[in-house]
Amino acid sequence: MSMTEIKGKIAFIGSGNMARAIIGGLVRAGFPGDRILVVNPGNPASMEAVRQEYGAVPSNPESLAGAEVIVIAVKPQSFPEAAANYRAFANPKALFISIMAGLSNAAVEDAFGGVRTVRVMPNIALAAGCGASGYAPGKYATEADAAVAQAIFSAAGLAVRVPEDRINDVTALSGSGAAYIYLLVEAMRDAAVEEGMDPAAAAALAGQTLIGAAKQLERENLAPEALRKRITSKNGTTEAAIEKMTESGFFEAVQAGYRANKARSRQLSDELCKKYERG
User: Under CATH, what is the fold of the domain 3-166?
Assistant: First the structure.
């Protein structure tokens, strides 16, 4: 499905950074800004900023009745209040897409009365048109609903369907993954500075190295180890660095971080769902 096949209006409850990133992707993919509704009465300045940037329409809660798709883009802690405020206005036949970390499809289904839902874990690279999102259809969602979610989140990057019990893996891998990459660039920059390189030069070279490696990985569509081995000459400088990183526990550190993220995600999800889900 392409964005042009979505004929109705898409409403966003919330207008924060992630909502703006998704809206930007939709508009760049050709979806008309005047069919994007933004509902955030507590922050009219934010709604106006989205209107100016993307042509989206600042709207009141009553407008949710005319939306084909409703994207819930509020903080999970704010969801009970949002559900209470908007339940009476939301179109019960709409597809509800939640990007709230930790909240299950069942929580949204219950809050809005058995609606069709898709749960999505996006990442911040959506803002650059290079997002990586995992999505999981809910109990009442159809294949057509899954296709809509795929189209919306593919508009600003990659979208991959996963079972809902793997959403925490998506969080640990791509949801938080950009921060891991930034940490690596930070470490590379700092290592060079400690050895005497000019900080500005070190930052520029480290950042561009990330960009170049990512583009090559995308363009050549090879496994990362294949690209790594290609530039790792026997007894060369790259091999010496990789051997030292490996000996120092590089892979173990990444795996430990992944598991810590997943465990914390599961803990937060359990805490939230105890409040909002059935039974």
Answer: Rossmann fold (3.40.50)
